Fold these 2 entries.
Entry 1:
Amino acid sequence: MVNIMRILLVGGGGREHAIGEALVRAGAELYVVAKHRNPGLARLARGYGLARETDVGKVLAYAEKFGADIAFIGPEAPLERGIADIFEENGIPSVGPSREVAKLETDKAFARAFMERNEIPGRKAFRVFTDVTEMRSWIDDFGKPVVVKPIGLTGGKGVKVVGYQLKDNEEAKAYAEELIRRDGKVLIEERTDGVEFTFQVFSDGRRIIQMPLAQDYPHAYENDEGPITGGMGSYSCSNALLPFVTKEDYEKAFETLKATVEAMRKEGSPYKGILYGQFMLSREGPVLIEYNARFGDPEAINVLPLLKTSLLEIAEGIVDGNLRKAEFESMATVVKYLAPKGYPTNPLKGVKVEVDERAVEETGARLYYASIDENLTLLGSRAIAVLGIAESLEEAERIAESAVLHIRGELFHRRDVGTKESVEKRIELMKELGREFEPNPC
Ligand code: GLY
């Protein structure tokens, strides 16, 4: 029985448009606070407050004004500011973890130490350094290629990997030194080779319920080239797996997430919200690359439209510690983001685009607005997502691509998201690493 009706959604991106849509579909009265008026959310919401999501005092004032029963926190930055704790103190429970628990995402040194002391499966070698000389000699002794990570949130832009953004361990040492001088410390990890995938679960602090796996395309340009972005698109399969992730790999990754929630509970900090595991499927199995303390963007757009269970019921279950079920349609999905030309390094802003919503609807695709305001002016980040849903990945991809034709302006997107060729490339990569498996249908 769902009693909660008034939900305050914090955030105004494509992910939040998908969350808001699922909440309204479940019968919620939706209120939104975000730093811009997302045209999709503005249509769904009964009230809309404009504020930076990290300005927790202002967001709380809107929550009280709107009489919110519960808050749903979209992005990570307000979680880092302790929005869930402050709302809790003011009688508004949140779907989104406390500041301490959100450190799994907001403090990478905390996350690695937490995994280590709790022996969470899917670990990798790491060290945190505050001293340049120690860091340099550890990398020399380690001998294998490394990953250099800033400790805090970087919007996906600060992580550098030897063999990709860094030529060799010499460049890694120079970059790590720069970070120590800037931030006082740096995280160095062993590089893990393989293919990445996203595993999102709902958690009420004790119980977790899995969502279909998804695969994100973080590079700006086709063929996985160009700078790392927030994610240019993603796909998911009707069987909730991915073509290169076996049932056994899936179970191992699920163990990592279960052990994480269990250890958090034992440490006295129950995980209440959405836990996102970014895994690398290596030759040996899934390795946790990073935790996120919220839905992925775009991955939320893959899974939420497939949700058969009421998102209100799930939200209530999360805050009451009484999460029961989350069922999804068995369909494939493809999300493609359209971003302003120049994104992410030098994005065009302040220019209008045209969207023929009716023509998009006729293709069977759905639209999700993101970094774009109500008069369709680009704000500088990923602007609009199109979603194709179908029984097969091929058909979902075709639907998403046909919708793109009805959005005109100074935008670009990746045509290869969810295509047969790009999926096969990932399967081949896993085979080259020495894994033997029969690819799952998608
Ligand atoms: N798509 C990656 C993320 O949401 O962090």
Entry 2:
Amino acid sequence: MSTKYIFITGGVVSSLGKGIVAASLAKLLKAMGLSVTVQKFDPYINIDPGTLNPYEHGECFVTDDGAETDLDLGHYERFLGVHTSKANNVTAGRIYYTVITKEREGAYLGKTVQIIPHITDEIKRSIFLLGQDGKYDVIITEIGGTVGDMESHPFLEAVRQLQWELPDEDALSIHLTLVPYLSAAKEIKTKPTQHSVQMLQQIGVKPDVIICRTEHSLNEDVRRKVALFCNVKLGHVIQSLDAWSIYEVPLNLQKEHLDELVVRKLKIDNYQRPDLEKWCKVLSDLKNADKVVNIALVGKYVALQDAYKSILESFVHAGAAMHCKVKVHSILSELITYENASEKLQGIDGVLVAPGFGERGLEGKVHAIHYCRENGVPFFGICLGMQMAVVEFARNVLGMADAASTEVNPHTTHPVIDMMEDQKKTTTKGGTMRLGAYQCCLEKDSLAEKIYGCELISERHRHRYEFNSLYQEAFQKAGMVCTGHNPDTGLVEVVEIPSHPFFIGVQFHPEYKSTPENPQPLFCSFVSAAMKYAAREKK
Ligand code: GLN
């Protein structure tokens, strides 16, 4: 079978959940025994989202191969249970950069370099690159942005060309739109969808399927109207009702027969009956969780849900695994002081201090950690959260009053967190951190080793600073032990306080690898520790 290409575009408004729809369709096809991957095109000029503030663009997701990518790749991995790579996220910036670099190298000598064909060719090349070794039966490409945006144009033009170039049974175009409900008129309106499809057709892209995001079920009349005016078959109008969990979306789309429609149109016949048993079990565990724990997420980007997307999803997965509803309370770290920490963390069963960069809110993180350490509250620090646990311990246990990370205080007399040696040489900011998967050796009988159930793990990283090994012994003697090291460089990756009920900080980002079907063990153990803490409180 030749590789099949599915293109997903979005219309009317942004934030309709194209990423979730792409991931859900991929999940359905994978459950039918097909090999699938999902790719995202982002129409902005940054080479990758690594240099973007999370408030601009949500979390930056990191792949095993060290690419800083759009958070939708996190959805793809969580739904599909397979790892993505650099090739799964391409920005307009990367496309233009490649073309301009080639131009300087003389690859187009004598030619005027233009959007068509050079930019569109490069876009198509990035799509085919994923399918080149025949690894995938289906490649789903999500085009970021909304139809009508100026930046998306070259990507849509590339889709138009591919629809024309590929055999009919090898390409499918899906358009996701909003079908709003006007409560005053008690009516579902299809006009914005009609306009969006008109705009798409002006570019020359013909949708085969329209997926309508809607708060209310679409009746036959509405479906007929969308089908007629958007030029698709009646059965090709699919509703995507607001779901109680994003993980329910594949099942909702299956009820609408999207999976059958796709294999029929793409003439795929080597598929099996979809096996979604494990997925459904996670959903029912999630729904039927009878206990509740309250977790504080202490960070500086708490006003935007998407900023800590993978962490929030990891808690959903861990909750399902532990049959417990995890209520995450976001607390802005800059509001926490030594005096108010106990009040701010009242009723909290566990504290996660989030990753981050820069000075804002750092002291609040230190106070929150201080409170957890002294009061036996389960603590879990990720990256900057781990680094601040080290700073807190240095200041309040080892008496190093000005201990700090040199990221914020280069003149401290106790640089307990310092820049990694090879980082000192880097002068540019984009893609230059320590990125991607690295192995880590866990000390036998440490909390980390017990949690993972093995001594050698691999997790993803995104940082420039590290625990300063000169201080290891002093920390160890005072009760904070380093229980995870990189086997090649010796870098400290995990710290723990064995005398505390649950106190662990990790330099890596375990949240990137958690999936509903394979919840991350650190998150599960943290939730379990929080459940114990909650039960203890009640006694
Ligand atoms: N700012 C810290 C560093 O660069 C932590 C990074 C993070 O939390 N991802 O090391």
